[in-house]
Design a protein that fits this description.
five-stranded parallel β-sheet, 6 helices, alpha/beta, 4 domains, 12 strands
Length: 260
């Protein structure tokens, strides 16, 4: 159950991980070993339940910490060791207090779980989770998560007529307000963007950035594995291509024979 990962070894339930070894539950990770439930972190060892940690070892429930290690429940520390809730301890006292905290968290049911959703500054439908696992507003609220309703705005109609060919587009488009053909949102073209389109002979987009992003996401397979049979030998396999998809899917052995 790993997706969009590269050079990972003996790791489970991970996404966007690169060079991870002996890990479990990773997302957006680089160069990590023997870690559990890490997000947005790199160069970590033997750490659990951490977010946005760099170059740490033996951290637990830490966020935005860089360097050092052996910290518990700390935020924003650089090159610190043996800290609890950002308070410095000596090694012996640190180990004694950490055991006491873990026992208390086990009794309350908090231990072993990542940071609760109540701490996130984003609503569910503002997160990447919503893109891969869309839920209705009612389903999100029923789980106790936040939902953000889109602000209603009176968008301006598009007056500027965009030429079909990029070579015919003048610089005056930079001062014009465009409207998305799908949702009606207004957007503008910036100078660097126009230069890029001209360089690569790309037409001016008719969708707003949000709709363009959703269109790209729709081209990706879901982060879900389906039971299916190899179209060559009939062997059972798991694939991100659903059984009703038209693509031909081979097991690894048949695929290797086909291309080599």
């Amino acid at each position: 159950m790993c997706f969009n990962c590269r050079d990972i070894y003996e790791s489970l339930y991970s996404q966007d991980a690169w060079r991870a070894e002996l890990c479990h539950d990773l997302t957006e990770i680089l160069e990590t070993k023997s870690c559990y439930q890490l997000q947005g972190s790199a160069y970590n060892n033997y750490s659990i339940f951490c977010s946005q940690n760099w170059k740490n070892s033996n951290n637990v429930y830490c966020d935005l910490c860089v360097g050092g290690g052996d910290c518990f429940g700390c935020v924003g520390l650089i090159n610190y060791k043996y800290c609890i809730l950002n308070k410095q301890y000596d090694k012996e006292e640190y180990e004694r207090v950490v055991v006491k905290i873990i026992r208390h968290m086990q009794q309350t049911g908090e231990w072993g779980e990542f940071f609760p959703s109540i701490l996130t500054p984003f609503a569910y439908n503002e997160s990447v989770a919503y893109e891969y696992f869309p839920l209705t507003k009612e389903a999100v609220l029923a789980k106790g998560w936040r939902w953000r309703d889109e602000e209603r705005k009176n968008y301006q109609p598009q007056i500027y007529v965009v030429p079909d060919k990029i070579g015919e587009v003048k610089d005056d488009i930079l001062n014009s307000v465009l409207a998305c053909i799908h949702c009606g949102k207004n957007y503008k073209i910036i100078p660097q963007e126009l230069e890029y389109y001209r360089q690569y002979d790309i037409c001016i987009p008719q969708q707003c950035p949000d709709c363009r992003h959703l269109s790209r996401m729709a081209l990706r397979n879901p982060r879900k594995l389906f039971e299916r049979q190899c179209d060559q030998c009939g062997r059972d396999l798991k694939t991100t291509y659903a059984p009703d998809r038209p693509e031909t899917v081979y097991c690894e052995e048949c695929y290797q024979k086909e291309i080599y």
